[in-house]
Write a structure and sequence with these properties.
The protein has about 325 residues and is α/β, with parallel strands linked by helices. It has 10 helices and 13 strands. The two termini are about 40 Å apart.
Length: about 325
């Protein structure tokens, strides 16, 4: 196996913590000795041991003289947990390979330098692009103070919304949305959507699933179902940039925006979004139905992927980067 193979294994381990680690990053690690993986670990939740520590504990004495592959530069500061660099040194690891450098001002190269100074061989940037992509929400959060924003809508072939609680999309598409809710930190809708649809905004059909923090722009009805569900509901007011910064201050690194049309239009107009996931159902509603984007400003998009989900087509798009 190659260094890339071992880092791919660390990335797969990191995915076990997706949706659970905020405000911390997603991190996985593997311990390698004599060309094979002897232990794996991931960061499960803020306040619990980091990926490196979990992997080294599982490796035990086998960590001495071994290589450690970790998706993010090891930390060298004390937060809720002790520095990972000290655990690495105590375990007797010989070499450390990491994927993404950590831009957190508390780390930002200090982890790698601490290990190098102690005599370890350290190599950063292994599969960096893949490691960065796995942590893109957290990287935006830690460098800008804003969460990663995903817009989601289900529309007809002529770009219209359902206009009520009856879904447009297929059962398979709706199941996929519940998986996204489980993976992202918060879910955001407008008060108009709550009045019209009375949604629960919970995760259903996912074993071990957890509900995201619910965010409503404007005041929802007092008897709204989402106010009776387990978990936290935030009633937000003010301009969108301020709302997003407040969510980031609460440690929420990612937000799934489920509408409605005015909310989607506002995010598009303000340019405050990072990805659009658009389900297109094989239906036509006609001119009287509501456009999913409301009256938002036009936007240039880059199409990243197209896939079939049940009877629907799912488009994944990003804002077009200026050249």
């Amino acid at each position: 196996m190659t260094a890339d193979d071992f880092m791919h294994a660390a990335l797969a381990e990191a995915e076990k913590g997706r949706g659970r680690t905020h405000p911390n990053p997603l991190v996985g690690a593997v311990v390698v000795k004599a060309g094979r993986i002897v232990a794996r670990g991931h960061h499960a939740k803020a306040g619990l041991p980091h990926a490196e520590v979990n992997a080294l504990r599982k490796a035990g004495a086998r960590a001495r003289g071994a290589d450690l592959y970790v998706t993010l530069e090891p930390c060298n500061h004390t937060g809720r947990t002790p520095p990972c660099t000290e655990a690495i040194l105590a375990a007797g690891v010989r070499r450390v390979f990491y994927g993404s450098p950590d831009p957190n001002p508390l780390v930002n190269g200090l982890g790698g330098r601490r290990l190098t100074k102690a005599g370890l061989e350290v190599q950063g940037g292994v599969l960096r692009e893949a490691c960065d992509r796995a942590n893109e929400a957290w990287l935006k959060f830690i460098t800008t103070g804003l969460p990663w924003v995903v817009l989601k809508a289900a529309v007809t072939l002529d770009g219209k919304l359902a206009g009520g609680p009856q879904p447009i999309s297929s059962p398979q598409s709706r199941a996929l949305v519940h998986r996204w809710r489980d993976q992202l930190d918060a879910i955001l809708v407008g008060a108009g959507t709550v009045r019209a649809d009375d949604p629960q905004l919970t995760v259903r059909g996912i074993k071990g699933g957890r509900n995201p923090v619910r965010v409503v722009l404007g005041m929802p009805p007092r008897k709204a179902r989402l106010l009776r569900e387990s978990g936290e509901t935030i009633v937000a007011k003010g301009p969108l940039p301020g709302v997003l910064r407040d969510l980031a201050r609460r440690g929420l690194t990612s937000v799934l925006v489920e509408g409605g049309a005015q909310v989607h239009g506002a995010f598009l107009a303000a340019g405050l979004w990072d990805e659009l996931r658009l389900f297109i159902a094989p239906k036509v509603f006609g001119v009287r139905a509501l456009s999913w984007a409301g009256e938002g400003a036009g936007a240039a998009l880059d199409l990243r992927s197209v896939e079939r989900v049940g009877a629907d087509v799912l488009l994944t798009l990003r804002p077009r980067q200026k050249k």
